[in-house]
Amino acid sequence: MEYWQPGILEAMASAFGTLIKIDERTLHMRMGHYARILVEVDMKQELIEKIMHKMSGVCSFANLVFERLLEFCRGCGIVGHTTVNCTRGRKQGKGS
User: Fold this and answer.
1) Straight-line distance from the first to the last Cα atom of the chain, in angstroms, rounded to the nearest whole number
2) Mind listing the pLDDT tens digit for each residue in 30-67?
3) pLDDT band for position 91 (50/70/90)?
4) How far apart are CA 17 and CA 22, in angstroms?
5) What rounded mean pLDDT belongs to the chain?
6) How many CB atoms sit inside 10 A of residue 43's CB?
7) CA distances from 67 to 39, 64, 76, 91, 94 (A)
8) Which of 25, 26, 19 is nearest to 5 (CA)?
9) 70 versus 93: which is more confidently predicted?
10) Which own/partner contact pairs does 53-61 have at CB distance under 8 Å and 24+ positions apart?
11) Residue 18: which of 40, 51, 48 has the closest Cα?
């Protein structure tokens, strides 16, 4: 439960983005096995699956689950399709 403190959650979020909001149920410790936070991430970067954190001298890993992700193309930077389905990126790449 000590991981659910706002400062600790913000430090963990900073490993992969910027903390925007902590879920009310998390703040009041009404969720069972996980903390839920809203984090702004750079979609051009690969999303990480886990982060390492250290508490009281003990290192452990926290698995990350991303909800409500939109399709995002890292080739052209547009939301709505993936790199596999990108026609814009292919056109730009033809001249290279």
Assistant:
1) 53
2) 877 888 999 999 888 888 999 888 878 888 888 999 99
3) low
4) 14
5) 85
6) 16
7) 11, 10, 23, 31, 35
8) 26
9) 70
10) 53/3, 53/8, 53/11, 53/12, 55/2, 55/3, 55/8
11) 40
Map tokens 């992969």 to a residue: 16
SS3 14: coil
Q: Tokens for 48, please give them.
A: 């990480």
37-40 and 50-55 strand pairing: unpaired
Residue 8 pLDDT exceeds 90: no
**Token pair recorded at residue 94:** 């033809």
At position 1, the amino acid (one-letter code) is M
User: Which structure tokens are listed for 13?
Assistant: 């979020």
Distance from C-alpha of 51 to C-alpha of 7, rounded to nearest angstrom: 16
Q: Would you tell me how many other CB atoms lie within 10 Å of the CB of residue 26?
A: 17
73's tokens:
């193309």
Contact of 4 with 29, CB cutoff 8 Å: yes
The two structure tokens encoding residue 34: 């996980």
